[in-house]
Amino acid sequence: MTDQTTDLMMPRERNRAAPLKREFYAYFTIIFLATLPLAILTWALTALRQFRLPAKGPIARAWSQARVITPMIFAA
Predict the structure, then answer these.
(1) For the purposes of burial, counting CB atoms within 10 Å of the CB of 11, is it exposed (0-12), middle (13-18) or buried (19 or more)?
(2) What is the pLDDT of residues 22-57, one digit of tens each?
(3) Which CB contacts under 8 angstroms, 24+ apart, belong to 47-50?
(4) Is residue 12 situated within a structural domain?
(5) How far is CA 66 from the centre of its chain?
(6) Do the domain assignments include residue 24?
């Protein structure tokens, strides 16, 4: 006789993780798009003041800000 009680928990965990991932990516996208204009502005001002291009581009700056902010929302 097989123990089927352990197999019953696996689908529930999978169903729970999928919406959480989608929600995380949705928040990440919204935060990324919200931080992008400010990142472009700071990148341009830094380039104008220092007469050289910063090492990190505006998309990389916005991406890293979204990577920091989004997990903070889910940890709260």
Answers:
(1) exposed
(2) 999 999 999 999 999 999 999 999 999 999 999 999
(3) none
(4) no
(5) 5
(6) yes
